[in-house]
Amino acid sequence: MRPGFRPEFSAQECERFAHAGQAVALLAGVLETIAGQKFPVTEVLNGGAVPFGIAFAAGLYLAQYDRMGRFGGWAFAVHFLSFGYFAGIAFTMNFVLVHLDPAAVDHLLDGPARWAFLATAALTLLGTWLFSAALWHARVVPPFAVGCYVAGLTALSLTFLLPAPIVRVGHVFVGAGMIWLAAWLRAAAGRAAAPLPQYS
After folding, report:
1. Which of 67, 121, 184, 193 is the most buried (most CB within 10 A)?
2. pTM for the full predicted model
3. Where are the alpha helices (DSSP H) in 10-111?
C-alpha cells in the first residue's frame, strides 16, 4: 500500500463485511456438519458461499490495516488471491465433481487437474497462515478466534487429502472463528472513531 493512501472505510461497509462472514460461517458449514454428509442444499451453500469469505477477509484487513503494516498488506494480498482460487475449487467440487461417476473423478485427478488442485491447496495454506500471522501480530482481533479461523481453513484447504470427518470438524472451527471475528468486526464498526483495543 503506497504511503499516504487510506482506503475509504465506513461503519456500514464494515457491517456488510461482517454479515458476509456470518453467511459463510452459518450457511457453508453448520448444515453439512449436522447432517454428516453432503446433500443438495449443502452443495449449493458450500459451492456458492466461499466468495463471501473474500469480502470478510477484506473487511478484517480494512478494519486494522494501519496496525498490520507492510507484512500484513502482503499477507492479505496472498490470502485474497488464494481465496479466489479456493472459491473456484469449492464451486467445482460442489457443482461439478459430485455429479460425475467416481471413476471419472479419479481419472480426472490423475491428470493435470490434480496439480492444479494441489497448487491451490498449497497457496490457500500459505495465504491462510500468512494472514493469520499478521492478525496475531497486530493484536487487535481476539487471538482464539484467529486460531479457529486458521485451523478450520487449514483443514478445508486439504479437503482432498483428509478424511471427511476431519474436514467437517474444519467446517465447525472456521465457522466458529468467522462468527467470532464477524461479531468483532460489527462491534468495530460501532466504535470506528475510537482507537481499537490491543490484545496482549
Report:
1. 121
2. 0.77
3. 11-25, 31-35, 40-95, 102-109
